[in-house]
Specification:
Blueprint (H helix, E strand, L loop, with lengths): L29 E3 L15 E4 L5 E4 L11 E5 L5 E7 L5 E8 L9 E7 L5 E7 L4 E7 L3 E4 L3
Antiparallel strand pairs: 1-4, 2-3, 2-10, 4-5, 5-9, 6-7, 7-8, 8-9
Length: about 150
């Protein structure tokens, strides 16, 4: 596979500096250690996460999960953009876009695809897994708005 150019997906608001050349060297990805994994993050399962742009429901606090030792992670992509993501088992409000790729994956051995808001198509993060199965979502926390459940 030669790579996915997320910026070329017509009609989707995904041009966030994610288009990168194909490489196989994981040394190119920078990981920033979290000082406080739980700081500012909701603990209750009844919390809901909405798209900050259009207000669509994306997922709930009950879907929070820990991957590689934590729920929240901060990464820098090869273009220098910093992302603070939270891991969720599912995100029914997301549309998954593109072919799976391992290029620059922030989670060793896992493929990723773009995850966008199913209503307004704003890029919200990535779906991770193997080629056939989605394991979890890494959602960009500052692109979500948290609200209380009904």
């Amino acid at each position: 596979m030669t790579g996915c150019d997320p910026g070329s997906i017509g009609g989707f608001n995904v041009s966030w500096g994610l288009s990168v050349p194909a490489v196989d060297d994981m040394d190119e990805v920078t990981v920033i250690p979290e000082q406080s994994e739980q700081e500012g993050l909701p603990q209750e399962g009844g919390d809901r996460y909405y798209c900050r742009v259009c207000g669509a429901l994306i997922t709930t606090g009950g879907e929070r999960t820990e991957i590689d030792g934590g729920h929240a992670h901060t990464f820098v992509n090869p273009a220098g953009y910093i992302f603070r993501i939270g891991c969720f088992r599912s995100a029914p409000g997301c549309l998954i876009i593109g072919e799976p790729t391992r290029e620059y994956s922030w989670f060793a051995g896992r493929f990723w695809r773009l995850a966008a808001c199913a209503l307004c198509t704003t890029h919200l993060g990535w779906a991770y897994g193997n080629r056939e199965t989605r394991e979890f979502f890494g959602l960009i926390l500052d692109r979500l708005r948290r609200g209380e459940g009904d």
